[in-house]
């Protein structure tokens, strides 16, 4: 409850600041690889798996101030992977959990220098982005990889004992030119049942700007 109040307060603060300081509306497309894992309190063998994310960003971009804001809508393929082990028959085995989210971060943009007269857009200004994110789970896959042969089972967040439909957390990013490195720290349980389970996601995205 404490975290939710802080996220709501932070969101209102960003909206207020942006309405005062933003000069124009901008944005663009975002796409790139995702490196994701989960913290599972009953499993210490999880590791990162690689997938992709893509979507759009809409930003309130200042020209005389160093603070702006943006909202993103991103499709993100996340999850986790176990380390390789051996089953009872001494076959190499690995478990993967794939999850699919629509993520909506609301970010405060802090420009690390002021705009110059010859700046055509924000691409050459280093930017720090931070703020809350809410995610909507739209499904996933349980995968068992035995000796390189994968067996998959699609699951939905509407099934009992599977994913929670809502995820939320905090996002921080550093951007320069058209490249951004972003980390999202999940604060909600990924699964409806079991011990604590939270998402941890790193993305490296390319974004055009208009």
What level of helicity do the residues show? under 10%
Number of helices: 1
- Overall shape: elongated
Averaged pLDDT, please?
A: 82
Give me the side-by-side strand order of the main sheet. 1-3-4-6-7-9-10-11
Major β-sheet annotation: 8 strands, antiparallel, barrel
Record keyword descriptors for this entry:
single chain; 210 residues; mainly beta; 8-stranded antiparallel β-barrel; 60% strand; elongated
Explain what this protein looks like in three dimensions.
This protein is mainly beta and 210 residues long. The chain has one helix and eleven strands, in the order αβββββββββββ. The chain has one helix at residues 2-21, and strands at residues 24-40, 46-47, 49-61, 67-82, 85-86, 92-111, 127-146, 149-155, 166-176, 179-186, 197-207. Strands 1-3-4-6-7-9-10-11 form an eight-stranded antiparallel β-barrel. Strand 5 and strand 6 (92-111) form a beta hairpin. It is elongated, with a radius of gyration of 19 Å.
SSE diagram, text form:
Elements: H1 2-21, E1 24-40, E2 46-47, E3 49-61, E4 67-82, E5 85-86, E6 92-111, E7 127-146, E8 149-155, E9 166-176, E10 179-186, E11 197-207
Task: Give a brief description.
The protein has 210 residues and is mainly beta. It contains one helix and eleven strands, in the order H-E-E-E-E-E-E-E-E-E-E-E. The longest helix is centred in the N-terminal third of the chain and has 20 residues, at 2-21.
